[in-house]
Design brief:
- This is ABC transporter ATP-binding protein.
- It is a multi-pass membrane protein.
- InterPro entries: AAA+_ATPase (IPR003593), ABC1_TM_dom (IPR011527), ABC1_TM_sf (IPR036640), ABC_transporter-like_ATP-bd (IPR003439), ABC_transporter-like_CS (IPR017871), P-loop_NTPase (IPR027417), Type_1_exporter (IPR039421).
- Its main location: membrane.
- This protein is of the alpha/beta class and 600 residues long.
- It contains 21 helices and 10 strands.
- The chain has helices spanning 20-30, 35-66, 72-120, 124-128, 132-145, 147-174, 176-183, 186-221, 224-232, 236-259, 262-287, 296-337, 400-405, 430-436, 451-456, 464-473, 477-481, 500-514, 530-544, 579-585, 588-597; strands at 359-366, 377-384, 389-394, 415-420, 423-424, 437-440, 518-522, 548-552, 564-569, 572-577.
- A 6-stranded mixed sheet has the order 6-7-8-3-9-10. It has a 4-stranded antiparallel sheet with strand order 2-1-4-5, with no helix packed on it.
- The radius of gyration is 35 Å and the shape is elongated.
């Protein structure tokens, strides 16, 4: 969906930021908690490598001793030894796979939960400037794309490296001259693989960005709201075409990622496959016209070892390419993990066992990060006694919702303080704030779950009687029991089986169930018709008795009875008083009230 929206994008890595070696150390640190299991894998790998290089020596004994000398007993033992080596290697391989896959999946789990937990601690501002699809793509596509690397690469790396070392040692033991011939081209192969790895890494970065863009497009255009908007605006066809173009670009990137360096890597495979012929040719030339430089058994055993060397070497080179490719994925994950937490719990948080509900705004100033020059709020001074009610009114964009959201720390002040019972909310524990302040926002969010589950999100251990009492307080109980499955009825995606007013009343019931001493009502009755608004307002008035209530409203009819009404204009309080007092002044509040009462 083509929208004029500013999306958050991680900054480009600067000079002082971690380079690949530091990044690799950070990746290795992910495996540190599982070092014991990895040590077992290392032992299995070493044992497997030793067993693998024994087989060529048994083969040499078969060809040079047992068969020429007709020693059938020795031949049987050697044959059994070769079979036993294969069985032991298979067992070791299964155990390696089991342990390494378990470790890899635990690392994947740690990464997923670390990213999710870190994002849970981010401020509301981060999510207002970041597309939901982008966040989902980081957790699903990027971490999912690392699965093969995390689960098998470490074991493959150690296993193949050990096999290469063991094979080289065994080859030198058989004949050092043939070993030199075999290893001449390895430096060239390493250089080629590094080039291929860098190329695939660059393509992978582009591919993951494209995946994130597609995830965002799907999340936005195939949601209920997106479908409604697309069809009512006649944009369904254009949205399909835009998605087709994005998918086509992704397909092209996938092909490029798959084919990057494929011919060069294939060349390496061809050369390695031809090496046995080169060894036979070199041995034959050296032996021409004289005694052979090596026995037939040694030559066959050497070629067998050479194949045992080339297979893990090719695998090592491929693993190196895969690691370089995965660095792009790790970089995207680390970018999220390195995001600064703008709203963090203090090191020594204050816990309030009992909250009276006294709220004070002391010289409060607030600016969004992308608009520091124009404060959204400036120099706000308000005092709200426990059990009192404050209404915030003003034009759209005057800062009403932002001021209300400072109390539960959805945002933090840029300057000044917000106090709850005389304690700066930045010093309170998150648990205290969550218990003390309840918010009913103008955007009602319901999960795709039952009505009961949505209500119990506020209080998981709530009894059925408590659910009913909360629903009655919000004047929604009769509606719920009229549904086919009552409180077990699924609300549908984002609650779209309910009207706006019904969803709002469910949200109010959810807050009633939580029973907070401080209420923030952000347009809590904005979606209700006049009759329902009156009923719910009566329920809210009853709920507000003995509680501190901050009401954010455009419709001034809902705030006439507030103890104090603060009129905001461009982030400052221009008028403060009761309804009658402000009306008598004939200022901005009176003008707003007159505009509301006179039909346009």
């Amino acid at each position: 969906m083509q929208l004029n929206r500013i999306d958050w994008t991680p900054p480009e890595r600067g000079r002082g930021e971690p380079r690949p070696p530091a990044q690799i150390r950070r990746i290795l640190a992910l495996f540190r908690p599982y070092s014991g299991r990895l040590a077992v894998v290392g032992l299995l790998v070493a044992a497997s490598a030793v067993v693998s290089v024994v087989t060529p020596f048994l083969l040499r004994a078969v060809l040079d001793v047992a068969i020429p000398q007709g020693r059938t007993g020795l031949l049987s033992l050697l044959a059994l030894g070769m079979i036993a080596a294969a069985v032991v290697n298979s067992v070791f391989g299964v155990l390696q796979t089991l342990i390494s896959t378990t470790v890899g999946q635990r690392v994947m789990h740690d990464l997923r939960t670390a990213v999710y937990d870190h994002l849970q601690r981010m401020s509301l501002a981060f999510f207002t400037r970041t597309r939901t699809g982008e966040v989902q793509s980081r957790i699903a596509n990027d971490i999912g794309g690392m699965q093969s690397t995390v689960t098998s690469t470490a074991t493959s790396l150690v296993s193949n490296l050990t096999a290469v070392i063991a094979s080289v040692v065994a080859m030198v033991a058989l004949d050092w001259r043939l070993t030199v011939v075999s290893l001449l081209l390895l430096p060239l192969f390493v250089w080629i693989s590094r080039r291929v790895g860098n190329e695939r890494k660059a393509i992978t970065t582009k591919r993951q960005k494209q995946l994130a863009a597609m995830s965002s497009a799907v999340q936005e255009s195939l949601s209920v709201s997106g479908i409604l908007l697309g069809r009512t605006m006649g944009r369904s066809g254009s949205l399909s075409r835009e998605f087709t173009e994005q998918s086509d670009e992704l397909a092209d990137l996938e092909v490029r990622a798959s084919m990057a360096g494929r011919w060069r890597m294939s060349t390496i495979g061809v050369v390695m496959a031809a090496m046995p012929a080169v060894i036979y040719w070199a041995a034959g030339l050296a032996s021409a016209g004289g005694a052979p430089i090596v026995s037939l058994g040694t030559l066959v055993a050497f070629v067998s070892l050479q194949q045992g060397l080339f297979r893990p070497t090719v695998s090592l080179l491929s693993t190196g390419v895969q690691v370089q490719t995965s660095l792009a994925l790790f970089q995207r994950i680390f970018e999220y993990l390195d995001l600064p937490v703008e709203i963090a719990e203090p090191e020594r948080p204050v816990h309030l066992e009992t909250v009276r509900g006294e709220v004070t705004f002391d010289r409060v100033t607030f600016s969004y990060q992308d608009d520091q020059e124009r404060p959204t709020l400036s120099g706000i001074d308000l005092e709200l006694p426990a059990g009192g009610s404050l209404a915030l009114v003003g034009e759209t964009g005057s800062g009403k919702s932002t001021l209300g959201y400072l109390v539960p720390r959805l945002y933090d002040v840029t300057d000044g303080r917000v106090l709850l019972d005389g304690v700066d909310v930045r010093e309170l524990s998150f648990d205290t704030l969550a218990r003390a302040v309840g918010v009913v926002s103008q955007e009602t969010y319901l999960f795709h779950a039952s009505v009961a589950d949505n209500l119990r999100f506020a209080k998981p251990d709530a009894s059925d009687e408590e659910l009913v009492a909360a629903a009655r307080a919000a004047h929604v109980h009769d509606l719920i029991v009229s549904l086919p499955d009552g409180y077990d009825t699924l609300v549908g995606e984002r609650g779209y089986r309910f009207s706006g007013g019904e969803k709002q009343r469910l949200a109010i019931a959810r807050t009633v169930l939580r029973n907070p001493p401080v209420l923030i009502l952000d347009e809590a009755t904005s979606a209700l018709d006049n009759q329902t608004e009156a009923a719910v307002q009566q329920a809210l008035d009853t709920l507000a008795e003995g509680r501190t209530t901050i009401t954010i409203a455009h419709r001034l009819s809902t705030v006439r009875d507030a103890d104090q009404i603060a009129v905001l204009d461009r982030g400052t309080v221009t008028e403060l008083g009761s309804h009658d007092a402000l009306l008598a002044e004939g200022g901005r509040y009176a003008a707003l009230l007159h505009r509301e009462s006179v039909p346009a």
